[in-house]
Amino acid sequence: MKKIMSVVLALVLCVGMCLTFTSCGNKADFVVGICQLMEHESLDKATKGFTDALNEALKAEGKTVEIETNVAGTADLCSTVINALMAKNVDLLMGNATPALLAAANATTTIPVLGTSVTDYNDTFSNNIPANVTGTSDAVPFDQQAEMMITTLNLVAGDKVGVIYCTNESNSLIQYNAVKALFEAKSIVVEAYTFSETTELQTVVTAAANNCKAIYIPSDNTVADNDSVVGTICNEKKIPVYTSYASSICYASLAIDYYELGKETGKMAAEILLGTKTPADFEVKTLTPSVVYNETLCADLGIAVPEK
User: Fold this and answer.
1) Cα(202)–Cα(198) distance, rounded to whole angstroms?
2) Exposed (0-12), middle (13-18) or buried (19+): which is 112, by Cβ within 10 Å?
3) Which of 24, 97, 147, 150 has the fewest CB atoms inside 10 Å of its own CB, making it the most exposed?
4) Which helix (H) or strand (E) holds 142?
5) DSSP state, 105?
6) CATH number of the domain encompassing residue 296
7) CA angle 275, 93, 77 (to 5 degrees)
8) Domain residues for 150?
């Protein structure tokens, strides 16, 4: 009986070892963790572009990658998501939006960290970007955006533009200060309409629509996630909305393609994982924005779309 049990045990161990080796044989060459701040069209596109480009680049080199994507939901949960990803021994972290990037950068100085959908890396890291951090920026030329609004809306000295943003997003303040200076240089009045909780947004938007000739929305994730509120109120009051991230609620925008932004980040990640480059070898990359008009909204608002 002892001999029989010994044989059975040996067989079990043998099968177990075979299964283990088979599993190891199927293990991906790299593990990448993504922390996305929240579910939103722009951020979703950036994550999709990243994963598509990374998979394609590694496949071309005969390599495989396991990618785990977690959506934090709020800024204060990004660290929890990053810690969970770190526990899985990831080879690279990607933070989609500023709070996610910060959480990843604060968690490690050795694992490569890439960011996307981040406006200003220097401001985010107080002009001291860590050596293991790089990525892509969704920054757009604010001077061109301001000029586009002035031209399309025939804004003149004394007209008031309201800027709506969430005070919890540092990048939004940067953008507000940039467009404020540009508008005020032409004697156009700029007023901030801010909020910290989404429950305040409807009241804030109503006040802005009642007091301003036009509304400007920076690349603010919280507003973008709730911009249907802005669109509903402003459309009823016939107040044109301009967003820097392109949205169905705006009559026009000068914005980037977030899917393409994510792809550029994915290409960076592939080179880092393959060992041909380090994060320090990459400068933060931006994309050339394109002009988009919403012809239906322009018609409703009496705005002439340029022939070209």
Assistant:
1) 8
2) buried
3) 24
4) helix 142-153
5) H
6) 3.40.50.2300
7) 175
8) 142-255+291-301
